[in-house]
Amino acid sequence: MTQLTVNISGMTCAVCAKNIERVVNKLEGASGQVNFATEQLSLTFDAGIISYDRIRLAVKRAGFKLYVQESDTAKAERKADDISALWRRFMLSAFFTVPLTLFSMVPMTLHSLGLGWIPPRFDPMHYPIFNGLTQLLMTIPVMVVSHMYYRNGLSALVRGRANMDSLIAKGTAIAFLYSLFLTWEAVFRGGHNMYYYETAAVILTLITLGKYLEAKSRGRTSEAIQKLMNLAPKSARVIKGDAETEIPVDDVVVGDVIVVRPGEKMPVDGTVIHGETAVDESMLTGESMPVMKRVGDPIIGASINGSGAIRYEAINVGKDTVLAQIVKLVEDAQKSKAPIARLADVISGHFVHVVIVLALLAGGAWLLAGQDVAFALTIVVSVLVIACPCALGLATPTAIMVGTGKGAENGILVKGGEALETLHKVKTVVLDKTGTITEGRPYVTDVLLHDTDMNNVIKLAAAAETMSEHPLGEAIARYGKEQYGELPAVEQFTAVTGQGIEAVVENVGVVIGNARMMEAYDVDITGFMADSKRLAYDGKTPMYVAVSLNCDALENKAQCKWQIAGLVAVADVIKPTSKTAIARLQDMGIDIVMLTGDNSLTAAAVAKQAGITHVEAEVLPHDKAAHVKALQDTGRVVAMVGDGINDAPALVMADIGIAIGTGTDVAIESAEIVLMRGDLNGVHRAIYLSRRTMRNIKQNLFWAFMYNILGIPVAMGVLYVFGGPLLSPMIAALAMSFSSVSVLANVLRLRRLGLGDGGRV
Length: 761
Description:
Structural class: alpha+beta
Strand order of the largest sheet: 14-26-25-24-15-22-23
Distance between the termini: 43 Å
Helix content: 40-55%
């Protein structure tokens, strides 16, 4: 099956989107889903059954155009041209409509006030023919520049797929044709009729203004994508031979050596091979603090170099860069539909036909009630014009667009509208421990010495551990380098499985290990037993250090005299942000569960530090998904947060999988939401963003429904029945035009949503 995402032009409302879907889905071997907000068609078809050209022609016959290979620049230029064309059309329409309205409405108003000082030539009661012909001549240009409403609307009506343009075309055409009949009657039969030309002109002008404002607002909903795309520099400085050459970033290939000076952007992803600097990655991760980069460290394209000049080797270029993948992820999310949009889609699909029937029934009912044709005409036109499926169609996709874009700006990548909707329902968050709550690698947390004069012993122990491959040994070696700089050479080294290591450093014998190791060397550890138990209770791993000053060869260790030198504790410490992030989640009414394969003692210690009361310890990797399923069986909506390969099954099982972006590719692929930062505050931000987005969508849908539920009966004359006013078609047009704009204005409030501190709900 072939999958394509193509741009669409010619849509004017949500009904158009449904019509395109109907056309595509009727074709054998093809299916499609249209996003009205992004004006894109996600197309899937079997090339062996149907070609893309056939699909394109079918859509073209329905009145729309597809652009399969339109670049982002070309699309932006086309949209800008469309917006400019709408503005020119509005200005030209207003040029004729304003004097037309004054010419027709002022005499009518003065007559109603009993004022008789109207210039005779402008008085329709004295010169009805001149008045009618003048209004006709001023109305025709407005209808000509608005011809697309008639072309699109009437053709859709003929095909049985009426849309918003059909309502506009039908309503204004009725007003115009009725006025034309009255003009003919005045010319050939005489009479003093009032005309409705200004109704048609004002409706068309206001509708055009509304569409212009809507187009401008819709353009702003997709600014997040454009901002992301603009992050990447246009050129790169690469080493060619012995010289630096500046080339377009699209020409950079894997293996190129790139030179970046202070203040410049990184063109592509890579690895530092020379120099060191602090890099600002906030535009991608949301992390405000610069990150130090040294030889061997990864570089993310579009991040900003700080104070140092570096050279790095290109690893990912073009569509493989982190930035390109983020852009694609956000684009895919914006094209997807959230389940909440289905109701609006169903209603939009039948909306126009129902409105036409209601307009005709209302007009007919008023005629039967004894009103004249002009009154019934006002009712019909008002109902046709005030009805608006556009607001319903825009309510959900535009909010999803802005919400996912806002998330991307803050290092929260949402893979679809469904994920964003489900996330706000989450009541339980399951957290992996290692790498999610904790740093993911052990650190030295405590150093206790038998004698303060033995400080040099830790330096020797750290040197000995440089030969070890065990994570705990690596932590001690790293601590030694941080404290003492360069460590002495190791003369002899042996690892004892399950117990520790023995080594000779600077002619001093060093033994590091657990109690069994000390027992084997006849080392008295009584003085440190209490400290060892306390540290173990705190979730740390204590290791004893013993030395022998007269042991210069491991072969003679039995003759050496060993004595306890100290105790070193190592632990995978919790991240500085974990406790605060977990407290924020709990403040939102969310239950937190820690799921880990570690032993119960360590798990309990970490949970206590993090403020978690519900702990599931000693869980095997393949059992994590079963634990998530058990929580779901209690009726909870569960989110799983993890970063490792062993978390992938649980991430898939959960209602929402959230991967820490610093984790493994498998975890990231398995999750619906990816947090670019490595801390849990991103979980709180994501849920807060989801709740605010869903609140915005519900507000939009409420007002879109209420607008039509209240507006259509008013236009039908319900208030007039009880002595209230009759809705003018021009007021109806103004209300319809701004219904979509009001929805978009509400959506754009999400762009000001503050996620820097996690927000508050």
